[in-house]
Design a protein that fits this description.
The complex is a heterotrimer of chains A (about 180), B (about 180) and C (about 650). Chain A has about 180 residues and is α/β, with parallel strands linked by helices. Chain A has six helices and seven strands, in the order H-H-E-E-E-H-E-H-E-H-E-E-H. In chain A, about 35% of the residues lie in helices and about 20% in strands. In chain A, strands 5-4-3-6-7 form a five-stranded mixed beta sheet. In chain A, strands 1-2 form a two-stranded antiparallel ribbon. Classes of the chains: A alpha/beta (about 180), B mainly alpha (about 180), C alpha+beta (about 650). Chain C: One of its GO terms (biological process) is cytochrome complex assembly.
Chain lengths: ~180, ~180, ~650
């Protein structure tokens, strides 16, 4: 029995080794996924994100779906990279709404004029309130919302052309 | 010395410029990059004008937003008791952008917005633990520096007792017994 | 040619360290003892050769030899001499070379000066030291040769990251390396003692100066690191329970425990197996710390050049050395008798409790730091363990430890009576009670931990000088002075922590030019914000005029600094140090109305935290000096007897 205990430190070390070896081999993923996937979209009622547009409320999504909800900003560089892909999705018949984070309507208008406007509705979230409520951790991010107003999928980062099939599949799943 | 606390967001976030670590990373936006020079413009205005001019020409990579910090992001609540409550909570919430820092210590804009949210809700009379729970529901346990007490963390919370017990067990043989 | 010479010296040193290991192992087999005669000289020559290799690398850096790849990648001919010099170890290859150099020199020092332990044990120790060195030699020579030449010399170097050009950072790594190597020598002694079955008081006395030296350097490293974080991060915090900070704290905790248990072993020839275990743990913790910092597997606020591949290498060495030592421990330690039993009320009894608490705290920090990774490995779920856990789990134990620290030195070795100990403690206890009363009556409610910290700090402060009462101060041995100063340093540091957390005044405001804001007893006026330029940065600098209760005005100039390459922004806080604390100011951004964000703190007695840290290190130095001097005298006496 006593002998057995003497090996305990080594056993502890083996556990340590296993844990840190896992840390070394796991892919370096610092993304924080939203825990709201599968839950209803939090209620919000945002003012218009661009001049001449209507406001954007979570009620607008009831019974309409599935749709994409794009979290973006005019000051965000990957959002520019993402814009053509969103345009392509829109042209394929996908409805996309947007929430502009910490932005001014006039800056959003400039951004849309330059990079194209794939959006149905745009809300302005000046203090990241809705972003926080959705568990989103940055821009750009895209959520799939079904007809019941439930978040079905979260895409973190800009949508690259190679991500489009996945997004379409998620939309189909949410139908 | 600066390197000790440097926060290159590229390394931290892996994916580059999706978002940035506030003051400590590269910046466009409010970042000021200008050559110092003789000023004929009133000094207070100089910085702003230069900042604005350079924000236009600066590479747009790793930008901050153009909006100022939200109300209560960098201002204290008038009621010291509420402010103390808010501060205690903010020190235990993890910034989603600058992942090594609490939102109380982070220059990231999102951290500022999180501080504003915490202060607003504390001022409205909400309990700190309710706000923590609200954030955990959205971002998972990761967002709180205070681990929940649940089966997964029992070993963690029991560790002090287990370690002391183990130590006492080992040490007991060292002491002479008296009748 | 210098670079080639350095590389040759490095290869030779590596070969010698292999020879040292083999000869040492051979000499330990019965009948082949004569092989041991070579080990000492080989260790000395190996140390000199590593020094030669390191000198060669310094030379190519100082001469800016741009045909050497490492110089071209990390230096520039335009740099000030100090940074060319410090640039030698400001990169991975150079810092590895520095590590083996210190290791080699430590081995040589053991070979030259160590005469207390038996020859057999010395040989085993040097062989273990050679085994540690070999792993690092292999890594240097096979995958990170610092002397590699470029096919075509570069026109000029790419420069050291400007942010790394700082006197503090230049000398931070050597301090830590020296500390880690000191613990590696303790580890080698422990392995040597286990192999030769000579775990005894002589072993403890031989190991003690190395542990003490390592502990002093680690104390300095942590104190300096904490002050950096305090004034660089710009939020007034001085300890964040960040993984990198924990990585530096763990070896210190283990070394502190070892320092005390080694005293028991040296004085009473007891706690043998435990001391050996602690020596293994202390070096393990320095390797674990290095691994955690360099591999980047845990997210930290302190950025380091992380590299998972180098992390894997350190992990492999860790597995080899620590796994090997723990297996050796399990096989051999049952032959080691633990030694005499103790009275509960005795110096050694108190030291056992000290060790128990220190290792429990070490365990808590270790478990808390790695738990998120553990959970992620098991369930894939991400969680965070931060200040709330560490403060509530380790805080009470730390306070208990500090309280015990006042009592321990007042107990006699072997056996004491509780009543007499309590008599000696009357004054410290009285001091504690008085401060408790003052806090309850006068101070605003400040929370349980700060209150306990404050009253304990005073009581323990009095208690820690109590061992000097009634003694002839001139004839009190230097190591007793060392203990008193170090313990007093703990009390001073604790007082600083308690005051900082209890009495800090914070003002976060937006101010117009000309506006005055209040923080604690200070009024601070924002006079101006203007651009300034440094050698490789530009900044916005605020001019703040502050005065205390309307007294003499003084100026603070916090900056918001931009570095072009790599593009970085830092807040440079401006701090005014008073005798009773610091006024800490930070300039933030400008809002739409043209007001500037200011962060102002008045932190009463915060400086005591680092003053205490300095005193702890000073106490260690006095103790080290005292021990070495006494042994020297003892030896002289034997020599002339």
């Amino acid at each position: 029995m006593k002998r057995f205990w003497l090996w305990a430190p080594l056993a502890g070390f083996v556990i340590f080794f296993g844990v840190v070896a896992f840390g070394l081999i796991r892919p370096d993923n610092r993304q924080i996924a939203s825990q709201m996937v599968g839950k209803p979209l939090p209620a919000f009622d945002l003012p218009a994100g661009a001049p001449g547009r209507t406001g954007f409320s979570s009620k607008d999504l009831q019974g309409e779906g599935p749709r994409l909800l794009n979290v973006f900003a005019s000051w965000c560089v990957p959002c520019i990279a993402e814009a053509p892909v969103l345009m392509q999705l829109k042209n394929q018949g996908v409805t996309i709404d947007a929430i502009a984070i910490r932005d001014r309507p006039e800056d959003v208008a400039t951004f849309l004029a330059r990079n194209g406007d794939p959006y149905d509705k745009i809300g302005s979230d000046t203090a990241s309130r809705v972003q926080l409520a959705m568990g989103s951790s940055g821009v750009p991010e895209t959520f799939v919302i079904d007809a019941k107003g439930v978040i079905r999928h979260q895409h973190i980062g800009d949508i690259r052309p190679e991500d489009v099939p996945e997004i379409l599949a998620q939309l189909e799943k949410a139908r | 010395m600066k390197g000790f606390v440097l926060k290159p967001s590229r390394n931290l976030l892996g994916e580059g410029d999706r978002t940035k670590c506030g003051d400590r990373a590269a910046g466009g936006g409010n970042t000021l990059r200008f050559a110092p020079g003789p000023s004929t413009i009133p000094k207070q205005g100089l910085a702003r004008i230069l900042a604005f001019a350079l924000a236009l020409v600066a590479t747009p990579a790793l930008a901050d937003s153009n909006l100022p910090a939200a109300k209560w992001a960098n201002e204290q609540l008038p009621d010291p008791r509420q402010e103390a409550e808010a501060r205690t909570l903010m020190l235990t919430l993890r910034c989603i952008v600058c992942q090594g820092q609490s939102i109380a210590d982070s220059d990231a804009e999102l951290a500022g917005d999180m501080r504003a949210m915490v202060r607003t809700r504390i001022a409205a009379g909400e309990k700190p633990e309710a706000i923590r729970q609200w954030l955990i529901e959205r971002y998972g346990q990761w967002v709180s520096y205070k681990p929940l007490v649940e089966p997964m963390t029992w070993p963690l919370w029991l560790a002090p007792l287990v370690l002391l017990g183990l130590g006492a067990f080992l040490a007991r043989g060292r002491f002479r017994r008296h009748r | 040619m210098i670079a080639e010479g350095g590389l040759a010296a490095l290869w030779l040193a590596a070969a010698l360290s292999l020879l040292q290991l083999i000869m040492g192992a051979v000499a330990l087999t019965p009948g082949r003892e004569e092989a041991g005669a070579m080990v000492r000289p080989v260790a000395i020559v190996q140390g000199l050769l590593t020094l030669l290799a390191f000198a060669a690398l310094i030379a190519v850096f100082v001469m800016s030899d741009m045909s050497v790849k490492l110089v071209a990648a990390n230096s520039s001919s335009m740099k000030p001499l100090l940074y060319k010099f410090a640039g030698t170890w400001g990169n991975h290859e150079g810092s590895m070379l520095m590590w083996v150099t210190i290791l080699g020199l430590a081995g040589a020092a053991v070979a030259i000066f160590e005469h207390r332990v038996s020859n057999r044990m010395l040989i085993a120790t040097l062989a273990a030291q050679a085994a540690i060195g070999l792993g690092f030699f292999a890594f240097l020579l096979f995958s990170s040769n610092p002397f590699e030449r470029l096919p075509i010399p570069a026109a000029d170097g790419q420069g050291l990251n400007p942010l790394l050009q700082d006197p503090g950072l230049a000398f931070h790594p050597p301090t830590l390396y020296l500390g880690y190597v000191g613990l590696s020598v303790a580890f080698s002694f422990a392995v040597g003692a286990l192999v030769t079955r000579e775990v005894n008081a002589a072993f403890a006395r031989a190991m003690r100066p190395w542990v003490l030296a390592a502990w002093i350097l680690l104390t300095i490293g942590i104190t300096a690191g904490s002050y950096w974080a305090y004034y660089e991060l710009g939020w007034g915090g001085w300890w964040f329970w960040d993984p990198v900070e924990n990585a530096s704290l763990m070896p210190w905790l283990a070394a502190t425990a070892l320092l005390h248990s080694v005293t028991v072993l040296a004085t009473r020839d007891s706690l043998r197996a435990w001391t050996v275990m602690l020596a293994v743990v202390a070096f393990s913790m320095s390797m674990v710390g290095t691994f955690l910092v360099r591999s980047g597997i845990l997210t930290s606020v302190h950025a380091f050049a992380v590299d998972p591949e180098r992390g894997s290498f350190i992990l492999a060495l860790l597995a080899l050395y620590i796994g090997g030592a723990l297996a050796l421990f399990a096989l051999r330690v049952s032959t080691v008798k633990e030694g005499a039993q103790f009275e509960a009320v005795s110096r050694e009894g108190a030291l056992v409790v000290n060790n128990l608490l220190l290792t429990a705290i070490l365990g808590i920090v270790f478990v808390g730091t790695l738990y998120p990774l553990f959970v992620e490995a098991l369930s894939g779920e991400k969680l965070s363990v931060g200040p709330p856990y560490f403060n509530s789990a380790a805080g009470p134990l730390a306070l208990l430890l500090v309280a015990l620290m006042a009592a321990g030195p007042l107990m006699r070795w072997r056996r004491d009576r509780l009543k007499t100990v309590l008599n000696r403690m009357a004054l410290p206890i009285l001091g504690t009670a008085v401060v408790l009363l003052l806090v309850v009556v006068f101070a605003p409610p400040i929370g349980v931990l700060p209150t306990l910290g404050l009253i304990l700090a005073v009581g323990v402060g009095i208690g820690s000088v109590a061992p000097l009462w009634g003694r002839n101060l001139r004839r009190t041995p230097l190591f007793t002075w060392g203990m008193v100063v170090a313990h007093l340093g703990i009390a001073v540091s604790l007082a600083g922590m308690a005051c900082e957390s209890a009495f800090t005044k914070e003002t976060l405001v937006a101010a117009k030019i000309g506006e005055t804001k209040q923080v604690g007893p200070f009024s601070v006026r924002l006079d101006d914000v203007e651009p300034v330029a440094g050698p490789n940065w530009t900044a916005l600098e605020a001019t703040l005029t502050a005065s205390r209760n309307g007294g003499t005005a003084f100026v603070l100039k916090p900056q918001s600094r931009s570095w072009p390459n790599p593009p970085t922004e830092t807040s440079e806080s401006a701090i005014s140090t008073r005798w009773d604390g610091q006024l800490y100011t930070v300039l933030g951004k400008q809002d739409e109305d043209g007001r500037w964000q200011l962060r102002l703190w008045w932190k009463p007695f915060v400086t005591l935290i680092w003053l205490g840290g300095g005193m702890i290190a000073l106490g260690g130095a006095l103790s080290l000096f005292g021990r070495v001097r006494r042994e020297r005298r003892y030896h002289d006496r034997i020599a002339y007897a």
